[in-house]
Design brief:
Strand content: under 5%
Distance between the termini: 58 Å
Radius of gyration: 27 Å
Order of helices and strands: HHHH
Helix content: 40-55%
Number of strands: 0
């Protein structure tokens, strides 16, 4: 919510008597109870990925995360250096 909108709501609430402010508070509580729970980005991603058929992932190269630019744009593949190699 924008700060400007919050300030407008607060200004209107401050102008009310205490009894009316309590009614507003009750109303806000009711609104919050009827709001659906928000999913995290990971829950949303998992939900969408679970709807894809398994064969969707069969053609993904094993080095896709390292060489994403190469697969998307044709850039040169990055070179992976192994730490256990002796020079």
């Amino acid at each position: 919510m924008s700060v400007n909108l919050e300030n407008m709501i607060l200004d209107q609430a401050r102008a009310l008597c205490e009894e009316e402010q309590r009614k507003v508070l009750t109303f806000i509580g009711e609104l919050k109870r009827h709001q659906p729970a928000r999913q995290t980005i990971w829950e949303r991603l998992d939900e969408r990925l679970s709807k894809l058929p398994p064969e969707t992932f069969e053609d993904i190269p094993s080095d896709a995360s390292e060489n994403l630019d190469q697969y998307l744009y044709g850039a040169n593949k990055s070179v992976t250096y192994r730490s256990d190699t002796k020079c």
